[in-house]
Amino acid sequence: MEKHTVKPYDVVVIGAGNGGLAAAIRVLQGGYSCLVLEQHNLPGGFATSFKRGRFEFEASLHELNDFGSPDQPGDIRTLFRDLGVEDKIDWIRIPEAYHLITTDKQYDCEMPFGIEAFIDKMEQYVPGSRKSMTEFFELCNEVRDAQTYSNSVNGNTDSSYMKEHFPNFIKAGSYSVNEVLDALHMPKKAQDILNAYWCYLGVDCDRMSFLHYGSMVIRYITRDAWMPKMRSHEISLALDTRIRELGGDIWYLSPAEKILTDDENRIRAVRLSDGTEIPTRHVIANCSPHLVFGKMLEEKSVTEQMVRATNARTFAGRGFTLFLGLNKSAEELGIKSHNYFIYDTADSVKQYDMMRKVDTNHVQATVCLNNAYPGCSPEGTCMMYFTTMFMSDDWGNVSETDYFKAKDRVADDMIRVFERETGCAIRDAIEEIAVASPTTYARYCGHPQGVIYGYETADWDSLMPRMMMMKEDAQLFPGLRFAGGYAMRSSGYSSAYVSGDLSGRQTVGDLKREVR
Amino acid sequence: MKFKKQLFGFQDMLRFKKLVPNRRAALAAGPDTPLPKSYRTNELAHRLHPGYMEVELTAVRPLSANMTELTFRRVDETAFPFFRAGQYVSLQAEVDGSLVSRPYSIASSPRDALAGKLVLGIERAGFFSEYLCTRAKPGDRMRMTEPSGEFHYETLRDKHRIVGIAGGSGITPLLSMARSMAEGDEDYEMTLFYGARDTRHLAYSAELADLAVKGLRVVQVLSDEEKDGYEHGFISAQLMEKYVDLTDVTFFLCGPQAMYNFVLKELEPYHLPLKAVHKDATCCGALDLEAPRTFRLTVHMRDAVHTVDAREDETLLAAMERAGLDAPNKCRAGGCGFCHSKWLKGEFRIADGRDGRREADRKFGFIHPCVTYPLSDLEIDVPVAE
């Protein structure tokens, strides 16, 4: 193997996904040199687009939450502002929250943004739900304020301050979504409708922490959701551009193969598969601890504690997406909503269980992008994407020779369910089609089993203890921090950007302490 | 509001306090079995999409007056990836100091690939194909990209009945599609119209006759020769109508641009939707310029900077290859995006109708060197093909 040694960098970021890109900008803004290594030829990881015929498809983003308007920015818009990319991107507002359909004919509800509008609509669907819904949002507000406080002190919260200012946050903090909603005496039907966002976090509501769900819902409903006009590829290229402006380097088609350590088990370099070594003391890994501790980190430096802590965790959903370019407009086809959640049942525990197997999974989170941005495809056409997840490694049973057919079977089911539940006949209008299976996600992003949601934020590993253990977790291997969907904040666009922001700033802190 | 789950609020508080100790204990209690080195889904992804493959030429066989068949085996593995019939590979080699590469459609079937064999049918048409057809010999090693491309059947989009129209070496992907049907991996019914000047220019006659027994309908059309068992003339709508209902099929066209122009004009009166006709992409060649200027092209590749000559009539990719720079590329038609590179400075133009970039690529200054020509000195940042 040819050994080519290049100049040292203060920080090497492995992976140009959402977390890695944000982290790199933070490192550069802190005044340190940074190289981003990306195995693929594009930035963004899942945040990208691809072309088929006259369509440019969004690869994964349904909506960016906690974004808000320019005047009332949410946390993510503020972050983009701080990173220096807000103005590089053209933004469009998503018109409504979601359209929930369950195929057992229990629900067909369209929910709006805005707390009052949301509560009013819920009262229409479920008379008598107003009081519990109002209390729910009050509680969510407190959750959000507590988290803002926690972030402002970098996770080093003062417990008496917490008790005094956020008593409900603490009292609700150890319970699941369903436990809290029951305690609020929310009517079952209202719970079902409210819980529709659960698939965005990928954990059923018996095991999902209320704090996690509540903080997400409040961000969606109060600050509404936005999209970049040119698909998420626009965000990724804006971040790439910003990194170059700040003097950082990005190498594409450059998979990091090994993290090399010295005699004292400190990081000394990152090695590419062609043998190139990049000297560095700090790595931000925008990939899973399973890959880092299982394959990338030199074996002599892998400790039993790393192995146990990694093995203890549970993979979240494996992704599957169908993309359709249709040769009729959304209006002609009768597709009215931007964002559909179609479930077999509103019971998330039952539903989660059905999602373990490819054959029993009929869930879809479906977007018709034209209903948020009519100009996203040529006049007289529209674009849709249908996403689901598998809650076990069932897809791993697919053989090579059955692969293309297996993709078609799931895609066919998605089309059938959508047509049946909405009455919109789309099949004959299919002009372009693409299918991304867990295999596809494994191929492009390298995640184990094609997981797109990182580790499950359920039970003991839910968001709150993760946040409280931020410092402790980083001690597992000083010099290494994680960003992206496998990091502390878990998956989803906004979370990934926040994780990169945190890890980038914390690495700057590490570097400053070293000088001292 | 005052939230309370248990009878006394302090009980809720206590539970909260246990979150961290609980998680700490759970992390420490994870099994100490070694972390997996690989995962089934990722292994499948790697088998289907190995990236670059090392291959060896095992057989060379003349096919027709202007076509040669090359058979390859893999050196780095035993099996080629299972692919979708109709796809291409890019073959890459060093010839006389230049790196050269071209996409060629696969003629063999996906099952053959699994059995370790991949076959290309190559028409002598340019520098590299001339080399492959006349100088390459069994035992030669080359680099090949994984099978790629969207020119293939889509079960949920296309009609059950399909019509293949082949001209010249355009027979290769359609032969693969017919083979895949015969082997049961595709469930369409296929009619193939294969046009050539005369029988001397027809390839794969024996193979097509064999496939005809297995359900393929083959109509061979000669423009310059009249012969029993062959249609005479061009592949017109009138001729095709003798065999199929043109309004209830999906077309797959592969051949020269002139053939595409002719067939599309023939199909115009039927007002078929766009989705009814698929055309395979063609390589982007040199521009026809009278006195092309030569510019300086500065290429950043990771931490290295190269300066090479770039002729006004040649793509940036061709300029880099001539200088021996290993720039990534696959389709050479502007569509696959594998050569995606950052423009830094200078003027350029893009081949007509071949700007396959994403919208944001245009906004932030990214280009596809395989279809981009220089109009001044130019500076770009290109990934290294690995």
From TrEMBL, chain A:
It holds the Pfam family Amino_oxidase. Residues 20-334 form the Amine oxidase domain. The keyword NADP applies. Keywords: FAD, Flavoprotein, NAD, NADP, Signal. InterPro entries: Amino_oxidase, FAD/NAD-bd_sf, Retinol_saturase. It comes from the Bacteria. The keyword Translocase does not apply. This is NAD(P)-binding protein. It comes from Ruthenibacterium intestinale. The lineage of its organism: Bacteria, Bacillati, Bacillota, Clostridia, Eubacteriales.
